Amino acid sequence: MPKIGSRKQPRVVSRTCWTPGESKSMAFTYSTNSKRYHDTTTGKFVGRVEVRKQLDDVIDVSADRMKSWTSDLIGNTYTIEEWQSLMAEEVRMLHMSMAAAANGGWDAMSTGNWSRVENYLNYQYDRLEGFAEEIFTGEQVTNGTMLYRATLYAESARATYEGERFFLEKSAGSTQEMNILGGSDHCVDCQRASEAGWVSIGTLIPIGSRACQAKCHCTIIYRTGPKDTLGSEIESF
Ligand SMILES: [Zn+2]
Predict the structure, then answer these.
(1) What SS3 class is residue 216?
(2) How many structural domains compose the chain?
């Protein structure tokens, strides 16, 4: 059994931030004109699927970290309060980083963007509080389901990234969207979304709200196009 600890609000400490341009493994520069990342060396566009793949890698590392902390909680290395603090801070940095990546970097974040991030975070903190409470009461058993549940706090950052991209594209005047099926996504909602081709913006079930929930590896691309191009095949992304 994990140590009980007190159940006051977790302490939040700063950790390293991440956006595509700051990654050691890739050097991307964001263009506000094209709303795309470019390879800093070659100047070429970086495919949206590639950007998303890099972000998924960041999310996977974060999920592993959360799993490890939760395993340490089960092993009594942390109190529930310490564990909750670590989890809350990781959630905060990950969701902020994903929102910044979607909007073209930290400097591009507007008050409106941060306000939405705050809403995402408050939702996640509430869920984390419920999770901690269930661990405290024993309703959440300390087995594999607890580790799996912990990783969902990282996986949920995909929806933050895709949600911010939706707001960015809609406010920039994009009128159509298309689902690009993730490599490991086979849920019925993702399959249907992919088969629809180009549809009016706002038609697709948002990523994170489909049957595969936070695990969704699909991405959505956008364009401005005339009505008679709806349902057409993808040309490039
Ligand atoms: Zn999917």
Answers:
(1) coil
(2) 2
Asked if the structure places residue 235 within a domain, the reply is no
Q: In terms of C-beta distances under 8 Å and separation of at least 24 residues, what long-range contacts does 53-58 make, across chains too?
A: 54/20, 54/23, 54/25, 54/26, 55/20, 55/98, 55/101, 55/158, 55/161, 56/158, 56/217, 58/18, 58/94, 58/97
Q: Which two tokens stand for residue 41?
A: 């060396």
| Residue 98 domain boundaries | 20-161
Q: Count of residues for the chain?
A: 237
Which residue, of 161, 184, 216, is where some domain finishes? 161
Of 165, 32, 18, nearest in space to 95 by CA: 18
Residues within 5 A (CB) of ion ligand 1: 182, 185, 190, 216, 218
Which residue's entry shows tokens 């911010």? 164
Check whether residue 193 and residue 115 sit in a common domain.
Answer: no
- Distance from Cα 183 to the centre of ligand 1, integer Å: 9
> What are the φ/ψ torsions at residue 179 (nearest 5 degrees)?
-85, 135
Q: How many helices (H) and strands (E) does the chain have?
A: 6, 5
CA dihedral 161, 13, 109, 213 (to 10 degrees): 10
pTM: 0.83
Ligand 1: distance of its center to the CA of 221 in Å?
A: 13
* 32-90 tens-digit pLDDT: 777 788 777 787 888 788 888 889 899 999 999 999 999 999 999 999 999 999 999 99
- Verify that 72 and 133 share a domain, yes or no: yes
116 Cα to the center of ligand 1, angstroms: 23
